[in-house]
What we know:
two-stranded antiparallel ribbon
Amino acid sequence: MSQVHCSRQPPRLAVFAHAALVIAAGLAAAPAALAQSGMAAAPGRVLPAPRAAAQPKSAEATLAEVETALACACYEGSELVIDPKRSLRREDCPCAYADKIRADLQASLSGLDDQRRADRRLVAFAVEEEFLPKRPDYERLLRYDARAYTLFLEGIHCGCGCSSGAMSNCQLDCSTSALYKRRGRIWLALGLGAGDLLDQYVTEFNASHGPADQHERAWFQVERQRRRGWGIPAAVLALVVVVLFFAVRSWTRRSGGPGDGNSSPDGRPSDGGSPTQVAELSNEERLRLDDALDDIEVE
C-alpha cells in the first residue's frame, strides 16, 4: 500500500508544479520573444512626415550650415589631419583637400530644392545617403555633441532584441543599431535632437510592421520599459508561490500527513479509506486561489 500511496499522490503535486512552471516560463519569455520578433529587422528607409511649412532655404545657406557641422580636414604630407576645432568653411579650412570635400558636399545636396532644404531631416538624409558614402574619411568629419549622442544610444532600444535593451550595448552585427548610430551622429551634428531621431525610428519601425504591431514612441524608450518590466517577474513569482502553496496544502491534507488526526503512526489512513483517493479543492480554497490570481492580473 505504501508503494501505491507514493506512486499515486506525488503526480497530483507534480501536475500543479508543472503547470505553474509552464505558466511562469511562458510569461517570462513573452517580453524577450516580443523584442526579438518585433525589432529584429532593420527599419526600412521612410521619409519623415512633413512639418509645418518653413521659409525656403537657399543652396548657399544650406551648404554653409552643413560645412559648419563638419570638421576641417587637410593633408600634411601623406597624413590626413582632422581638426574638429575648426569647421569646413573656407575661411576656417583653406586647403586643397577641403576644397574637394566642399565640392562633394555641394554635389550631394544638389538634389534638394529650396523648400526641401528647409527641412533639416531631409538635408540629413542627403548627407547620409549621398555625401558620406563618397569616401570613408567623411564620416570622421562630423562634429556632434558626444554626451547627447551617448544619452540617445542609452535611451533607445536596440533593434535586435538585445538582453541589455539599450542600443549602446547592442551587438555589432545588428543592422538597426549600425544604422542609427551613424544616423545619430549625422542628425546631432546638423542640429537635430534625440527626440527627432526617436520620432524617425518610430516612423520607420511602424511603416515596416502590420497594424497589430504598431507602437507609440514611449514603447521604444528604455527607461519606460524598465519601469514596466519589473512587474512581469513579480507577477510570475507570485503566481508560482500561490499555486504551489495550495497544491502542497491540498496534497498534504488529502494524503493524511502527520498531525492531521486521520493517519496511524505508520502513515496509513486510520479510517481505512483508500490512500489513493484524492479529493478536490474545497470551495473556500478555490475562492482564495481565484482572488490571488485576480490580484496578479490587476498588477
